[in-house]
Amino acid sequence: MTTQVTTGLDQQTRDIVKATVPILQERGGEITKRFYQLLFENHPELKNIFNQTNQRKGDQSKALANTVYAAALHIDQLEEILPQVKQIAHKHKSLNIKPEHYPIVGENLLLAMKDVLGDAANEDVIGAWEKAYGVIAGVFIDTEKEMYQEAIDTVGGWVDYRDFKVVDKVAESDVITSFYLEPVDDNPFPIYQPGQYITIKAEIDGEPHSHLRQYSLSCAPGEGIYRISVKREDALADNPAGIVSNYLHSKVNKGGVVSISAPSGDFTLNQNDTRPLVLISGGVGLTPMMSMLESTIKQQPEREIYYIHAAQNSNVHAMKDRVKEIAEQYNHVHAYTVYDNPSDEDNYDKKGYIDYEWLTSILPSNDAAFYFCGPKGFMRAMYQNLKKYDVADRDINFEFFGPAAAITE
């Protein structure tokens, strides 16, 4: 990526924006919550793009609040937020966000600021933020333009959505099912980087709008197929059943067709690193880990790998036989299983959780490349374990579809 950041904002505008940093830190969540209310009231068609489940949970509001706060904090040097911009831009590309969406977002964001902040959002503040938003939006638009162009220039690449047929459907556990996908048009389709994801666009009978969901690709690139492994999200006391996951499990069968976006995401395996690779997953978080594992044994068969997976028990543990097969075939692969609630028949290496003492007892050193993925609480615990283990920040890599602060703070 070659995106350049030139604000072109006068000093007075930047000073006013920076002066809003404390109030954004305090009330950013209120502003973004109100923003989404206004956005969907004024533009209900955008419900076809934004994940309404994340809206109910508040995850989207928190992520946007963090971005707005970071932009205000670094308004003098917006290049400081480029890593964050690029991560979000990958998601925007996967959701097919376009330049014409940004003025709509800006208008409603300013309206939300006025509503929430009242007199504190005077004419000078709103004017400064209008200018600043134009610059910030331009950074996103330019970054995403490069990504879209890269997709177009890639052999078999595409923009928007493309129909893929389900050539196989395999139950991996009681709750996880894999879908093997090939393009309906039989034209080439691009390989991807281990760890990347695609977006499924689900048009479900009885639903008033489209549902978009991102799923990590769970096999090694270059196998002539895309595979996603989807956990069926059943209803819990505080959460309704997953609309798309249940639709895929119950309605989409072998021979069916789904619309997907091209692979995206910056949570990718560094295949130039030869140090030990540590892959840690919880539950369905194993999907990008499996892609990284399968890819590494093909590309770096001598590389030391520690594959650690946590699940409730064997009934919900997907792909355990494949991991066992790999560990038996490759002497450099060390596989460990942790079950929180095992049955009497289960085979596992540890009961309970992946704690610091156990984790450090099975690893040779903290000088390794660490990748982890799983539920939010699991990921927060893994991050804390690795920080306690004095793992360098550059070696801590994780995928989380939400604000990173939920993991790191």
UniProtKB/TrEMBL annotation:
Positions annotated as active site in the UniProt record: Y102, E144
Cofactor binding, note field: Binds 1 FAD per subunit.
Protein EC: 1.14.12.17
Domain of life: Bacteria
Annotated ranges, domain Globin: 8-145
Residues that hold heme b according to the record: H92
UniProt remark on domains: Consists of two distinct domains; an N-terminal heme-containing oxygen-binding domain and a C-terminal reductase domain with binding sites for FAD and NAD(P)H.
Alphabetized PANTHER family for the sequence: FLAVOHEMOPROTEIN
Descriptive protein name: Flavohemoprotein
Gene transcribed to yield this protein: hmp
